């Protein structure tokens, strides 16, 4: 269990308004050595998080055990050739098409869309390939540990995460499946690893940007910012029973702090 609770950057979260003041930096391109191991396989923690996300999402949509899904893919029979050079072109970050208001911008957007189509083909090939051909041993170990820990903590954490959802997500929960999985992984990392909260939150936002459109990255950012603020102010905030007790008013905390925490908890983006 992580003992150093750290803090969330004051430039990223406005505790008075209860919302982020600015989104974190845009994801940068990784160098080849950051991205690939000496055998040309994906090696980064981001690759592991992405694999964990895909595994948990697949298990959630099929209502099956996530570890079973992971292990079946890990032990998948390698029955076809896989050109590992394709991994050099595998992009962990989405292409930003922009507003496209001028003719020049429209041409640029069209080129970016074509680039996205190529990347989609690469992505499909990579995500369907046998795991040992695509991921390093480190990435596989990290991904499996995230899948295991997240699935074990899922029900407890869902009690904390879902009340922070915007009304649209609460009314149509299928719209929030991917953000929910991203949030579950992020909260699991915050609670069970020594990784910096800032790194975890930025990675969660990058994952959301990659797989979701619209306001989802901003909402994920806001939910994690609120979660880390509650956690920083009150040890034990990762416990759903603690939060329920707090919201029922049985925890002795200053009324001003109680009001702010309850307000931020019950008024999602």
From TrEMBL:
Residues 26-38 have a biased composition (Basic and acidic residues). Belongs to the NusB family. One of its GO terms (molecular function) is RNA binding. Residues 1-13 have a biased composition (Polar residues). This is NusB/RsmB/TIM44 domain-containing protein. Residues 141-227 form the NusB/RsmB/TIM44 domain. Pfam families: NusB. GO terms for biological process: transcription antitermination. InterPro entries: NusB-like_sf, NusB_fam, NusB_RsmB_TIM44. SUPFAM superfamilies: NusB-like. Residues 1-38 are annotated as: Disordered. Keywords: RNA-binding, Transcription, Transcription antitermination, Transcription regulation.
């Amino acid at each position: 269990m992580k003992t150093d609770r750290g803090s969330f950057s004051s430039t990223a979260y406005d505790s008075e308004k209860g919302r982020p003041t600015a989104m974190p930096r845009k994801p940068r391109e990784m160098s080849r050595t950051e991205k690939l191991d000496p055998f040309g396989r994906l090696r980064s923690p981001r690759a592991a998080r992405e694999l964990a996300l895909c595994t948990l999402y697949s298990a959630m949509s099929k209502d099956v055990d996530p570890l079973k899904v992971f292990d079946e893919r890990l032990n998948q029979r390698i029955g076809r050739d896989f050109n590992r050079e394709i991994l050099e072109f595998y992009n962990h970050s989405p292409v930003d098409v922009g507003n496209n208001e001028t003719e020049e911008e429209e041409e640029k957007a069209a080129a970016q869309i074509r680039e996205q189509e190529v990347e989609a083909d690469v992505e499909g090939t990579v995500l369907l390939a046998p795991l040992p051909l695509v991921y390093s041993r480190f990435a596989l170990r990290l991904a499996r540990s995230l899948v295991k820990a997240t699935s074990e903590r899922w029900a407890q954490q869902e009690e904390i995460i879902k009340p922070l959802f915007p009304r649209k997500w609460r009314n149509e929960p299928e719209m929030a499946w991917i953000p929910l999985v991203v949030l579950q992984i992020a909260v699991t990392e915050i609670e069970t690893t020594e990784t910096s909260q800032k790194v975890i939150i930025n990675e969660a936002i990058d994952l959301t940007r990659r797989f979701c459109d619209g306001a989802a990255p901003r909402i994920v950012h806001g939910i994690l910012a609120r979660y880390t603020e509650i956690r920083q102010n009150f040890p034990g905030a990762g416990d759903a029973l603690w939060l329920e007790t707090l919201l029922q008013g049985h925890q002795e905390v200053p009324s001003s702090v109680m009001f702010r925490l309850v307000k931020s908890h019950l008024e999602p983006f």
